[in-house]
Amino acid sequence: MTATASEGDDRIIRESGIDARIALIVQPVLRGIGFRLVRVHLSGQNGLTLQIMAEREDGTMTVEDCEEVSRAVSPALDVDDPIEKAYHLEVSSPGIDRPLVRKSDFTTWTGHLVKMETSMVVADRKRFKGKIAEAGEDDVLIERDKAAYGEEPTVRVPYDAIADVRLILTD
After folding, report:
1. What is the pTM of this model?
2. Which domains does the chain have, with CATH numbers?
3. How far apart are CA 113 and CA 53, in angstroms?
């Protein structure tokens, strides 16, 4: 099950499974207090941890914002109770190696280095590293960091083929 686009959700990369169910619960709460959902991830290392990554519309997120989000989403999660076991809630900003999940993220971060994985083969690969050269309506143009012999220096990746993409910290 993949979360469907809800009102105000312009994310092109969405959660599946239990993460999708949690996203559908917390997203309206976040929107109601002026935040956007970036990502939800439930991991099971040393007990369950529910990570909710969020940001304000302008892309900022302070420690106080994290506290506000935590206080707002906790009751909604308690009511719907999507997680059967005890878990630790962790609210954070997207950080410096942030995932790009919206078309607008690609526009904002044009010129920056990213690491990308696709859900299907694009230009004979499923993994790319390079700079965002252009963010189009339906795809993103990546200038490859190191193109192999015979490969084009740029590759156009359709948004619907992207499984994961993150900024890479540079000097």
Report:
1. 0.86
2. 17-92 (3.30.300.70), 103-167 (2.30.30.180)
3. 21
